[in-house]
UniProtKB/TrEMBL annotation, chain A:
This is Transketolase. Belongs to the transketolase family. Residues 10-175 form the Transketolase-like pyrimidine-binding domain. SUPFAM superfamilies: Thiamin diphosphate-binding fold (THDP-binding), TK C-terminal domain-like. One of its GO terms (molecular function) is transketolase activity. Its cofactor is thiamine diphosphate. Keywords: Thiamine pyrophosphate, Transferase. Its EC number is 2.2.1.1. It comes from Rhabdobacter roseus. InterPro entries: PDH/Transketolase, THDP-binding, Transketo_C/PFOR_II, Transketolase-like_Pyr-bd, Transketolase_C. Gene3D superfamilies: 3.40.50.920, 3.40.50.970.
TrEMBL record, chain B:
Belongs to the transketolase family. InterPro entries: THDP-binding, Transketolase_N. Keywords: Thiamine pyrophosphate, Transferase. Its cofactor is thiamine diphosphate. Its EC number is 2.2.1.1. Residues 8-274 form the Transketolase N-terminal domain. It is an enzyme of class 2 (transferase). This is Transketolase. GO terms for molecular function: transketolase activity. PANTHER family: TRANSKETOLASE N-TERMINAL SECTION-RELATED. It comes from Rhabdobacter roseus. SUPFAM superfamilies: Thiamin diphosphate-binding fold (THDP-binding). It holds the Pfam family Transketolase_N. CDD domains: TPP_TK.
Amino acid sequence: MKKYTFTEKKDTRSGFGAGMQVLGQQNPNVVALCADLVGSLKLDAFIKENPERFFQCGISEANMIGLSAGLTIGGKIPFATTFANFATGRVYDQIRQSVAYSGKNVKICASHAGLTLGEDGATHQILEDIGMMKMLPGMTVINPCDYNQTKAATIAIADYEGPVYLRFGRPVIPIFTDPDQKFEIGKAWMVNEGTDVSIFATGHLVWEAIQAGEQLEAEGISAEIINIHTIKPLDEEAILKSVAKTGCVVTAEEHNRLGGLGDSVAQVLVKKHLAPQEYVAVDDSFGESGTPAQLMEKYGLSAKDIVAAAKRAIERKK
Amino acid sequence: MEIDQLEKIASQVRRDIVRMVHGCQSGHPGGSLGCTDLLVALYFHQMTLNEQDEEAVFDMDGAGEDLFFLSNGHISPVWYSVLARKGYFPVSEMATFRKLDSRLQGHPTTHEGLPGIRIASGSLGQGMSVALGAALAKRLNDDDHKVYCLMGDGEQQEGQVWEAATFAPHHKVDNLIAFIDLNGQQIDGPTVKVMDNRDLRAKYEAFGWEVMDIEQGNDMAAVVKGLAEAKGKSGHGKPVMVLLHTGMGYGVDFMMGSHKWHGVAPNDEQLAAALDQLEESLGDY
């Protein structure tokens, strides 16, 4: 098992803020919008350096999406930012008509995704956003795994022409990816090569998958771990190549088991390479208040849940 | 362009509207007929458009020209006719309205690449937000052209409209000129009965808009005069809202003043009766 160490923990939303600061300096067409959550989205540096390219929308997310679509007419690259719940579910029709169907170059950037925003509870813990966004034709869906990858993804999507949903979060987690990485949309990242089971993980679950891989190794099981940071378009080639080698799959995500990464992977397996698959995901329920660690434990999203799922998947190969 | 020429174009556009809706036995003639004079005056008189040899040339970004957004997308027939008559696409294409494989979808869209359209609309309440975004882009680009946006009066019941109405004065978006088509009708009946908008002038003034009326929204001379007035009010720190008083179905006597022709197509006899009232000034498609 390849060793992953870290010296620092940070929130992925801060990676977004750092990426925005770079974009502010590098790309004059990038503009930012926010619906009264500037501090939470870590936009302070961008706003300080580019006040004329920031639009405070107030608590009006629907208007923010429409504004973003309009700003593309005139060559701007708008980054529309708020919490994931308000960036997707609340404004689904606005995204559908004014952004996706209209083919607009809008970047919807959503923090506080999933359970790990913690104490605010289920009203704010969206677990359906990946599903909603991936179902929109033409929408790219990205869920990076740590600070560095989120920063790199933020910078990369500005150069991509088309609507993007970028999902990140609030908790501080280990920084274990390369600070100078080049982020390639739609290209899965091989975290660890293995032979017994393929673990496809996204977002905060990638670090959990690495810890699970170490535990499995201690028990003599070789896990292949792949970071699927781009859920759409999905890197089918990487998935099929891995499953051809291991013969079974675990998918891990901070999302409802319905409609997320697991279902995207299952479609590939059903169509092209039948193999046992186990889901590590929230079992079709809402979240609740608690600390991020408590919630990950209670809703079955921890390393030990990935370990158990891997053993079940391997068992089903027989 | 002279008023009588604009009136001739409007008559042809009204023929196009009823013929398109008749051709596919579907669509929205009422609001289309009511807004004909506004759209003709905008495209053939008021707006600065990128043109070559008097034919419009479409560019999505619309740099250096005025922009128009239709928020109440169901009145697509009037927009399609005006765009075709302005040269954005062949008038013959109007025959494909609402039919399979057409660029003239039931509601306007960029998806099929129809020149002249910059955003999809149909799900109501979104257009003014988009127009505001385009107006902000013009401001960032030091482009001093105007952005126009038409909404319906029933559409004022959508919450997003009021998000946009709050944003525009706060950010002093004074290159936006918006219209509300005050025809007093919506699908389920008169607007005052379905969901009374009450005093829209007072509402928009309270939100910080410059508000004006065009009382005779189906009188070409009054519309042209009102548009000049609206342009004069723009650029002074406030967005401009024009309350455009129209008659639903205007120009076809049996379609006028009733919500019944909001979304109903005429049959063969009704089409003939309608066309008898409208001069074929530019040649039917």
